[in-house]
Write a structure and sequence with these properties.
The protein is α/β, with parallel strands linked by helices and 1435 residues long. The chain is built from 49 helices and 42 strands.
Amino acid sequence: MENQRREETLFVAQGGEGERAMNVIGDEEDRRKHRKLLYVSEMDQTDPEAFARSYQIEALEKAKKGNTIAFLETGSGKTLIAIMLIRTYAHHLRKPSPFIAVFLVPTVVLVTQQAESLEMHTDLKVRKLYGAMGVDYWDATTWKKELEKYEVFVMTAQILLDNLRHCFFKLDMIKLLIFDECHHARGRSPYACIMTEFYHRQLSSNCTPLPRIFGMTASPINSKASSSRAGYAKQIKELESIMNSKVYTVANESVLAKFIPFSTPKVKLYKHVDIPYDLWLCLADHLKTLKFKALRQLQLNDNAEGSAKKKIAKLFLTFLFCLTELGVWFTLTAAKSLSSSETDIFFWGERKDLLGDSIVRNFSRDIFHAFSQYVPSDPEWCIGEDLGMDLASGFLTAKVDCLIQSLIEYRREKDLRCIIFVERVITAIVLQSLLSQVAQLSCWKTAYMAGNHSGLQSQTRKEHMRIVDAFREGTVNIIVATQILEEGLDVQSCNLVIRFDPSATVCSFIQSRGRARMRGSDYLLLVRSGDSSTLSRITNYLASGDIMREESIRQALHPCTPLETGMYYEDFFCVETTGATVTLSSSVALIYFYCSKLPSDGYFRPSPRFDIDNESGFCTLHLPKSCPIQSVCIQGQHNMLKQIVCLKACKKLHEIGALTDYLLPESYVEDEEDDTQESGINSYEDQYFDYFPGELVGRCLSFSEKELYHCYSLRLKQDFYYDVPFRDITLLVKSDLGIEFVSTTFQMEVHRGSVTLGMEYIAPIYLSADQVLMARRFQVTILRLLMDHNLSKLKDALEDHLQEESLARISYLLLPSISSKIDWVCVSSALFCSNVGGSSFTAGGYGIRCCSCPKENVHLMQTRDGSLCSCMLRNSLVFTPHNGRVYCITGILDDLNGNSIMKSKRGEVLTYKEYFQCQYGITLCYSRESLLSGRQLFTLHNCLRRLSGQKEKALSNADVELPPELCVVLMCPITISTLYSFSFVPSIMHRIESMLLAVSLKQMQMNHCTQNVVVPAIKVLEAITTKKCQEEFSLESLETLGDSFLKYAACQQLFRDNKYHHEGLLSSKKDRMISNTALYSLGCKRELPGYIRNECFDPKYWVIPGESSGCFVEDVKFFSTSKNIYNRGTRHIKKKAVADVVEALIGAYLSEGGELAALVFIDWLGMKVDFVKELQDGTPFLAKPEIYIHITHLESVLNYSFRDPSLLVEALTHGSYQVPDIPRCYQRLEFLGDSVLDYLITIHFYSRYPGLPPGLLTDLRSASVNNDCYAHAAVKAGFNKYILHASSVLHGQITTFVQNFEQSFGGSSFGWESGSAVPKVLGDVIESIAGAILIDSGFNKEAVWESIRPLLEPLVTPETMRYQPVRELELLCGSKGYVKKFIKTSNNGIAGITAEVEAHGVIYRETCTGENKKTAKKLAAKAVLETLKKCIPGI
């Protein structure tokens, strides 16, 4: 058993690089041959060197001493050698060491495989990297974090090459550099470039330590077999030179044969038979005819048409290949597969040539229909039933027949695992289909594998792994594969390899042969009879292994030949600060990459253009117009002109900052990080304080002297009739609330109408300790009763207010008043009852149960706790224990008593006495006593809430009849008017609290600046009030205003400060500068979240002043403000809400104090922007602009005369107009003009329509600031005639739009009724012209408005505005509670949008297509709106 475990552990230890030893000698190995890795834990505890083979130990020792290339067969365990070598370097790599090891692989599929091996057999931190992870967009900071965290990096070679060029990685930080499949180090491959551009350059300078190099390969030669030993020797020597390493190998194949099995090569000859010539000729003509038909149908834009033509040409050759080399049936199968492939359906943003793809798919479908006529249509017929007849009919070729016959010979093979290697992807697809249908092979399941960049039916890496796993498990027996399986993927248990197509190189031959790993496996090669060339090549391939080993051993004693200087010492540019480099060889790719990051649209793709004069040796590089450098010219060697001019351009671009110090296009790497940050902007944070104004906070300490209070009169006035009038209330606070509260008013709303509160400062007043205690008792009693409508909390509240407390708590007084004088008689009503709570009620605690009536007028009435004069009951607050309710007594019903008949809802005839007996079991003792008229207490509402059109249900005003003997008097005397007025107190005080916070915020900002900026606190309050509060105002309008101003301020600042930046870079910087994330950060630094009002006020949670629930543990004092701000806890606020408040505050300062005030506030936030009036300096870049456009006419249309007319030419030049005479396009001007028009239009609506409901300003701006509106204005002004462009697609779209102009322009709809996409360029030129005027006028916004506004007339108004269909649908669904969604759809390859709305349980669905996603979505929304309006009444 111990021996068995040792053998099983050895079986795992010899795995690696997709080369685990699956063929072990003996019956026991056969029993285990299909097992997976089941002994990982044992391996983890065991040193792999203990079980390493002798040649592996030798290779390891060689690698420890010097750079080594391990040349060993597939399956010999080269990865184990690499693992052991990494372990010897582990002490150099463990963090916090700055050194790393890098394991390079040639393909993505190898990254995970090798990384998993390293993680399994080492304790080092392994990081796997490949392009799909987005590593191409990581910046220096991200790479630094990665280097600080991980110790071994497994990656594709291109990633390391890019990082070395950009100097994110440096060669001296790499201790060990491993090259898997190092035979790829040839020519300009990434492997070769890493060695030539960096390793050999540093080797020659001998200035920095170099990494140890370890290469792995099954063949050091990656080319066709050489005819002589000298040829092999030369290629091995070249590999050793470029890798600066010596090849290690075994003496002969027999050494490896002790450990790994070798498959037996077998050549299978077949006699070629041509497809019947007439049939071939006829079908070839069909292919040509259908190809020309498909090409004639192409009417796409320039790029898409070129792409579609290439695809059709490629498909034509593919079908012709299938017809000639495989047979008619295979051509039919290929056409069917390619015409029905769902992977060819793409949506907007995924593929720009959607219609081109559809045409290509239709071409395949036409081929399928044409070829179907030449294949039997009988459903009973199946390919392969009669191979001889199929061959004679041309359905398949002799080569395919040979393949089938060869597989049939292996039918008796138990557990067959076969790999068939083919050259083309289409061959793999159709052979898999064939083998799945041949009846004689039905016992086996077949799959195919091809690279995921084939351009036909792409397979993902997950699909590859799924197929390989199925192959291991035996659920797949045959894999038809391209070279993807020759190296890389770990395929075990294979006992048959068939080369359907011959190997192109020695390496391919050796690697494909090595995939047959089982003992007794075969390597079958299909060769056409009489093909002496292929047979000779196979013979050379078979002999190549021994020759390469012999030559490697012969050269082992000689040192590596130094690499020729010309291979690594080419001209290059190095950035001193970072060390990033670009060479002649890499400069062309960098220029193309830079151009690909420039702004583009659907009409042109920015790319470099080379003008080469071979005779003179001059080369001029023309860069796109959005590039700050327009052209670079050089003279040099004819074969190096492109490289030389591109290297010079790279230097210039770096000099002006267009390329960063890491030689990357500026800022393109940050975009994805910003998207990630923005995606979380709607998340919540828990750490926001909830502020409370210090003016309303005090301490409940005993005092003997009189205490000073400031009195404010609160007068309520209603605009409706109600039988209960208001009475005045006096607010007493210990601090002067400031000038904002000297005289102020605000509106409240109830179900009956509006209530206006007038607040005025009266005077200071001194109160004695007794007066303060009585006042506190009064307000606690009345407010607690109004909030609870019972006595459950009143007793504790009354006891609590008498306690001395050192902690700060909400402390102010609210008392009834008459003519601005406190009504102390009413205040004393709270002293009437001394014991509240429990089951007993003791009256007379304060000795005030007698009334002021003359003795002869005293009329005593029996209450629950004694006799009282009727005058005291007439205005009192009573509690009725039998039902637990509190009533306000409004009068005495002299005509009713306990024996009177009461009105019953059920129609019963009962006396009051009988009713109370039946309902409550109470017997009235004083049934002849007059009844009291009582009214239930008023319900507290949020009177600040904006009521909808549907009024709330009014509270019943009906009085109830109460026997006096059932009543306990709580307060007396107190009128119903007092109770009614105090029911508004929570809403009033909530508004005052909010206003005080706004004042504090304003004061905090004022203390920072020297300018005298006056902004009303109510405006600040509006800016910190979110829509969730549901009040009469919210921040929406101010946010829109602030957003437009901030956008303009940032854009003009960026435009002036970055004259070499293109529009894309400016937009990226602007987006980061004023993004929600940036504004949120600024707002948090100024502690704004604590001031934000983001919840609808609920009176139930309002804190009664003086109660202990309003205590504060500590106060918070900010900056230089003299007023304390108290924290009453934490709350949830969305990050975006903070950003919105920042914009709204900017809008508040702008609306009240102008642009200077807004800039002061922005500066206080921590953002630096300024406005500088400056004129365009320098000479115009065009000497004669009038030769390009009609300057005079355009100036008359614009009503503006340009100082520099060349700006107007720039404003009308599209990026596709690649004419050297005009060095700029309109993109930068568009960037500036977009922001200034947005701002001007927004400020116009805000000023023109003051008091707009929240949200309407946003809708007005959206209706006016959009491409549709601008495009119509451009055509109306005739600007389309002067746009300089060179795009046939744009020309066609403008022509169509202008022809339909009258029909599409719907006045106030501003183009939204148009069913076709509006060319964006038309809207762009309005913005670019606005930008040109702004610059030419010295940033005079009034000049821009006077010129552009007439073009936009008639501007939309609140009365004429119609919502864009998508917006209208959103509003409708939001107001009605309908559920809506938009779904991407496809029909016959044509993408569309489906608008789906669920209303009242019914789903309404409409699908529309369009030229782009935006148009399709708009049309779908419009269609479903029309359906809803027809089907649902009242919409």
